[in-house]
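Write out this protein's structure.
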Amino acid sequence: MTVPRQAVHVDSPTERRNPRTTDLDLLSTLDLLRSINAEDRLVPDAVAAALPALATAVDWAVEALRHGHRVHYVGAGTSGRLATLDAAELAPTYNAPPDWFEVHHAGGSSAFQNAVEDAEDDEEGGAAELVASAEAGDFVLGLTASGRTPYVLGALRAAGALGARTGLVFSNPHAVGLSDIDVLIEVDTGPEAVAGSTRMKAGTAQKLVLTAFSTAVMVKLGRTYSNLMVGMRATNAKLRGRTVRILREATGLDMHECAQALDEAQGDLKVALVHLLSGVDTPEAAEALAAADGHVRKALMSLRATV
């Protein structure tokens, strides 16, 4: 005899029927898309309301990384996949060290392509993963639309017990039992166009939050100059061309001068940039950057350059 699995009622707006989309299956294709798009346009305002809490999470993540600790993402299903994608893009975009961000996805790497739905209910599994990899001083960011996913909450509580700071991104203003999480990033996206399909607005909100979070962390750690990606790795022809273009945009110099500076800096975009903007030679530019923890503006200020 098969024992039925436990059913849990989740009291969340994301699970409710959306009164604006009850005729979704009767619409023309264009009107169907317009209806979904109208819902999607509500997401940025919901994210904007959560920015003060998100700013706290950014500052804690920056503090952790500056002191040799790590940032952990924890999620299940769509949340875990979005977290995996965000972390994967930081190395090529900002040359972030591979050990800065670690993702814990319920069901493991195989769940990235194939859903392992029961894995999200494994509270002990989430806790065990963080006990094995987190430490005091780390920052752990969980993501769950419902605000109740056992795997995620188990991981956050275990991390908090270790002395790590914790945060949670969620879309359920009715979520309970979260008082032991250090910063709550509530993004109330309301009912989905298709009831319960949290890969829609709730997932879009998580993508916006993650992108803003990790980008802000990289900016605060000096991986940009102005709004230019000076920490990027030029690993293909397109990116090599981008490094020269970034130098041209930042300095106003021609392609030949910028390419030559990159060669002298052995491909280090930051060193080439400080060299060109300050007028000091490449070794001195590298020394100034090292003293400034890799921040181009701080290095330039130390050299009394005009920024």
